[in-house]
Amino acid sequence: MNLSCDNHRLDEWFWLKHRIRCALAPDEPRLVARLLCTARNLARQDELPAWPLFESVFDLLLDTAGDPALPWHWRCHCLDHVWQPLRDLGRLALRPSDQLRLRLMTQRLLHMQMQPSLTYTDH
What we know:
Layout: H1 3-21, H2 30-44, H3 50-65, H4 72-81, H5 83-92, H6 96-110
Helix pairs in contact: 1-2, 2-3, 3-4, 3-5, 5-6
């Protein structure tokens, strides 16, 4: 494998996560689909271990959805897609410890309460 190509893919992965978490392009909903597709490709090509990869996508989307400093529509978009890495993890959860971890993540999602987004006048 070409190391510079691998580094480019991983740099793109980390930059994509940053753009989503910070809502740097909140009017570009395809970023989330691209993140999910990239995660699946990285896992399939064994560039990153699948479980931590999908767990990080879940955490990213859930944390972004719960961040009141970000635009409401972006938060809702992330929340709408957070089930996808859970589904990917469900396919990997073969051991009882993984199944427990997946249940805890699901509980975290089920108990999440979204506060309204801050406005420019909020201090």
